[in-house]
Amino acid sequence: PGCYISNLSSYQTSLHALFLSLHLMLFSCISLSSLSCLTPSPNPPPWVQIVEASQVDPQTEQILAEAYSLSGHVDHLTQVMGLHPHYLESFLRSQFYLLRMDGPLPLHCRHYIAIMAAARHQCSFLVSLHVREFYRMGMCLDWLKGLQYAPQRLRNLNEINKILAHRPWLITKEHIQNLVKTGEHSWSLAELVHAVVILAHFHSLASFVFGSGINPQVDPQHANGFQSVYISDYCTCDLASDHHLDRDLSSTSPVTTDSVSELEALMDRMKRLQEEREEDEASQEEMATRFEKEKKESLLVGSGDMKDEVMPTSKVSRFVEDATFGYQHFARHGEDNPPTFRAQDYSWEDHGFSLVNRLYSDIGLLLDDKFRTACDLTYYNMASHEDVDTTMLRRALFNYVHCMYGIRYDDYDYGEVNQLLERSLKVYIKTVTCYPERTTRRMYDSYWCQFRHSEKVHVNLLLMEARMQAELLYTLRAITRYMT
């Protein structure tokens, strides 16, 4: 991963030119306020980590044009993702189709489901975006008073919403049956798949928002003429509070010998693991043992920091029922645990893709492109090193998330996870994935001190897509079992 500078002075100011400049970081409006909260020093600031401009395909240009015309600005989420323009295009196509194109669910219901999903993690930033969509459509505004004002059919999604957000391995075919066989409030399978994809999309997107420190406010000095983000009374965002980002957001960390040696040590471990892989592959039994060991060890990662912490309530809590229901580790001590989800028994490529694409036409293609883009994305760089194959590192990040969710790949050696991901990074991954609202600036700064901001954003893209795919795998497997 990694991004490099392009010359921002060549930006044109016309709207048409702005859309064609997507690969120059979307309209040159990446504001200091949106990213400075998490940009680690001494790396170059994010506005000098932008890929060279290239032509945006017409469909993406149309999506961006509509999004801009509706709000008069490009939100900070889009700006931060724009550090990786190729991924951003895939993300925008998928989200646009999910929320605006023809599909089983009415448009206003889609946005309300997005609100329900984001509220599970107290993500005011995302909730506010879709509350504004409700105001724009002028429909069912009473629903915004709280979940109890929504129709029973939507409220019935609460159970699957909370389980997907915190413990997706608990989803069973009975949950599916309860939703599709509830009389006047029943869901068709096509509608349910549409709703589930929206839920998983916004659960994982909340992880990205908190993990990347997305700031909803725009500094007028750096707004470049774009309108400031309006936050309605329903959803005040507190991302910049002490709870989320620690106290001194302007502090910087000098380059240290330790951080330099950390980078060199990671490079050496990658090289050694590659050599060992070529010389002698571990047996299936050994790889299974290593998975179980990593799964159990992940139980202890960050457990002391998270224990018995009570999240403060906020205005988005009105969209949440059973707020005390939260993440619990897949492999909890002293309890009967669900069996490991073996990817060869039910994988996205062989099973989930075809089912979701059959029940909700074309969404499987868009999701598959997004998953692949995030996993394959590379600039062959690591911090100051060039011509580096980062495949091993990217797969370790993706598979560690699935490991925490009890998903195992038989062809993967989980010993690589322990070799490549140090404890501080594991704490960050677990927090962003399982408790995103508890992510702090200290966690962000504690790992990969020599890496660029764009590289850490890439980490968050991988975590987001791994989480979304895990949620979908459990749900689609449950739907398959219901159908058979």
TrEMBL record:
UniProt cross-references to SUPFAM superfamilies, sorted A to Z: AhpD-like (SSF69118)
Protein keywords: Coiled coil, Cytoplasm, Oxidoreductase, Signal
Chief localisation class: cytoplasm
Coiled-coil ranges from the UniProt annotation: 256-290
Superkingdom per UniProt: Eukaryota
Signal peptide start and end residues: 1-37
Keyword Cytoplasm: yes
Classification via InterPro entries: AhpD-like (IPR029032), Sestrin (IPR006730)
GO term, biological process aspect, one: regulation of response to reactive oxygen species
Cell compartment(s), UniProt: Cytoplasm
Gene Ontology CC annotations of this record: cytoplasm; nucleus
GO molecular function annotations of the record: L-leucine binding; oxidoreductase activity, acting on peroxide as acceptor
Reaction(s) this enzyme catalyzes, per UniProt: a hydroperoxide + L-cysteinyl-[protein] = S-hydroxy-L-cysteinyl-[protein] + an alcohol
PANTHER family (alphabetical): P53 REGULATED PA26 NUCLEAR PROTEIN SESTRIN, SESTRIN-3
Family: Belongs to the sestrin family.
Protein name as it appears in the record: Sestrin 3
Organism for this UniProt entry: Salmo trutta
Gene name as annotated: SESN3
